[in-house]
Each structure stands twice: as structure tokens, then as C-alpha cells.
Amino acid sequence: MNLQSRITIDPNVCHGKPTIRGLRYPVETVLELLSSGMTTDEILADYEDLERDDILAVLAYATRLSQIKKVEMVQP
Q1: CB–CB of 53/6 below 8 Å?
Q2: Smallest Cα–Cα separation from 28: which of 67, 60, 62?
């Protein structure tokens, strides 16, 4: 799956948060829906702009983020 075609980051859309195809659906929102117990089919029914591959891309994106070995915290 090509994440670059599904997950986009644009500073002018949702304050630069990762979104699905620039549709103003943040990746974090879909993850929250899934973690609340909603099924893929329920999400697709509620958000008609989304496609099954969008949700798969969100999960693949989250998987890649979880594989980061070290996060550097920047102090203000």
C-alpha cells in the first residue's frame, strides 16, 4: 500500500496534522474511532468520503509510527 497517496501532511489543512487524502479527516480521528470499538464498516457508513483503503492506510501509518525507536523531546 502506498501511504503517500493516502496520508497527507499539509500545513494549510488541519494545522499540518496527518490527514486522509487532504480531506480534513485527521489520522488521529480515525484511530480514535477504531479504538472506541467502531468497525471499519461503521466508519465508512458515517464518513462517506472515506474508502476502505484509507482506513488501512491509517493503520499502516500508525504501525510505522510505533516502530520509531527513539523520540527526541525538544525543550522550549
Answers
A1: yes
A2: 62
Q: What is the pLDDT of residue 70?
A: 72
Contact, 51 vs 38, CB < 8 A? Answer: no
Q: Strand pairing partners for 20?
A: 7
Would you state the cell numbers that stand for residue 26, as one nine-digit string?
Answer: 485527521
Q: Residue 74 pLDDT more than 90? A: no
Long-range (24+ apart) CB contacts under 8 A made by 55-60 are: 55/30, 56/1, 57/1, 57/3, 57/6, 57/7, 57/20, 58/7, 58/20, 58/27, 58/30, 58/31, 58/34, 59/34, 60/1, 60/3
25-57 pLDDT, tens digit per residue, is 999 999 999 999 999 999 999 999 999 999 999
